[in-house]
Write a structure and sequence with these properties.
3 helices; globular; Signal recognition particle alu RNA binding heterodimer, srp9/1; alpha+beta; 9-stranded mixed sheet
């Protein structure tokens, strides 16, 4: 059985104590800026606030929250995303599918309990091909 391909890492989740100070640090020190078209995800400080490096090759999702960060979000094309859903099902890995209105994500845990995600920005393709998932909702796909 062949493992499906990943397109790279879409973004890394980071918990920060003070969101405004973290944004300032990432902007000043590492050259990140807020991704304006995704800023609505942080309405009411519920996170994430997505930052992108000036070369548009790295994204961070900042959450104003204490404790451990959430893990890696891998990037996938729409076709790769669908292949991953099948791959997880074949391996009986519990997943949670989410329609974020502009992207789709599938959430899963590794064998140590670390949470990870695969995200696809091929929204139109996935919206047409995936089972109905309410926008913004998380639906368990596999028990």
């Amino acid at each position: 059985m062949t493992t499906p391909k990943l397109a790279g890492i879409d973004h890394c989740h980071l918990n920060v104590d003070d969101l405004a100070q973290a944004v300032q640090w990432y902007q000043h020190i590492l050259g990140f800026t807020v991704v304006e078209e995704l800023a609505f995800w942080n309405e009411n400080d519920q996170g994430p606030l997505t930052l992108e490096h000036r070369h548009a090759n790295v994204r961070l999702a900042l959450f104003a929250a204490p404790g451990r960060s959430k893990g890696i979000a891998f990037a996938a094309t729409g076709e790769q995303f669908i292949a991953w859903l099948s791959h997880f099902e074949q391996h009986n890995i519990k997943t949670v599918l989410a329609d974020h209105g502009v992207t789709f994500s599938v959430y899963f845990k590794d064998n140590c309990g670390n949470s990870h995600e695969i995200t696809s920005h091929d929204y139109a393709l996935l919206k047409a091909r995936l089972p109905r998932v309410a926008c913004g909702s998380h639906t368990a796909k596999k028990e």
